[in-house]
Design a protein that fits this description.
With about 290 residues, the chain is of the alpha/beta class. Helix content is about 40%, strand content about 15%. The chain has two domains: about 80 residues, Nucleotidyltransferase, domain 5 (2-Layer Sandwich); about 180 residues, Hexokinase, domain 1, CATH 3.40.367.20.
Length: about 290
């Protein structure tokens, strides 16, 4: 069970202030442990957030908040911890394929950017390795994609895949393909209702996503399955089946058969990152208990 709250970061001077206020208002016993999932790489105890001018020391923050233990992880890593335990009611299957037990699993998906993480099963549980796959360079395969890339290079300079495969990327793609300016939400909503231009944009988006995810699946040999998450991926869940996504995912000669054997599922749970953070927190609390 989650006590889910949304706070405006602009209302606080620092992360310490935000969580200090939260802890003072929750009532009941003070938590012993905390798990923070933040945007950006987490390489040690000194953490600098990507989309916010906040930085902190994990040990100092734990002391300030009165926590016995504090874990900080990348936000997409938290999401990866969450998706592996989700049931079928929270997943939409795209195509066929059967997971190989004990094989790596790939979690990736478009949202604010394009997040990536690898899940490696271990003898006891699993290990999550976050990545920065959204920042690999975007390449064109068709003449249409070359036109899109030319526009993006003119606007942005060097183009990474998350310049296209993200909420902002969907907006860019729709503007290039149709000449229309719209929000990612309105594009997806119109596509779901059958509007031709928006549906075409979403199909091109999903074809590109399929090819890039296929690249990542080959790179990691993710025979344990692929999970597509992120806000944009979840919002498009009902568009995958009739889109070119699966064909583009598999179209990697000479490994079409290998990719065809990999199951792909779209995560539609509303807060998989919180599920993952809670799982990490459960382990953290267990480690604090006396043997």
């Amino acid at each position: 069970m989650f006590d889910l709250r949304v706070e405006a970061n602009d209302s606080y001077a620092s992360l310490e202030d935000l969580f200090g206020v939260y802890l003072s208002n929750i009532g009941g016993p003070r938590p012993r442990a905390g798990v923070f999932a933040v945007a950006g790489p987490v390489d040690g105890d000194e953490v600098k957030m990507t989309n916010r001018a906040w930085h902190f020391s994990r040990p100092e923050l734990a002391r300030t908040l009165g926590l016995d233990a504090l874990t900080v992880l990348n936000d997409f890593a938290a999401l990866a911890h969450g998706v592996v335990g989700l049931g079928p009611q929270n997943l939409v299957t795209v195509g066929t394929g059967k997971a190989v037990e004990g094989a790596p699993m790939l979690v990736c998906g478009p949202g604010t950017g394009l997040g990536t993480a690898l899940v490696l099963p271990r003898a006891e549980g699993y290990e999550v390795l976050p990545g920065e796959g959204g920042h690999v360079r975007f390449g064109a395969v068709t003449s249409e994609e070359a036109r899109v890339l030319a526009h993006l290079v003119q606007d942005l300079g060097p183009v990474s895949v998350e310049h296209v495969l993200s909420g902002a990327g969907l907006v860019r793609l729709h503007r290039i393909l149709s000449g229309e300016v719209a929000t990612s939400h309105s594009i997806i909503t119109a596509a779901l209702s059958g509007q031709r231009n928006e549906r075409e944009t979403c199909h091109v988006f999903l074809r590109l996503l399929g090819r890039v995810v296929g690249d990542f699946a080959l790179l990691t040999l993710a025979r344990g399955g692929v999970f597509i998450s992120g806000g944009v991926g979840a919002a498009m869940a009902q568009l995958f089946a009739e889109s070119p996504f699966r064909a583009a995912f598999e179209d990697h000669p000479p490994y079409q058969a290998r990719l065809a054997a990999i199951p792909v599922r779209v995560v539609v749970h509303p807060t998989p990152g919180l599920v993952g953070a809670a799982e990490v927190g459960r382990r953290l609390l267990a480690a604090l208990e006396p043997a």
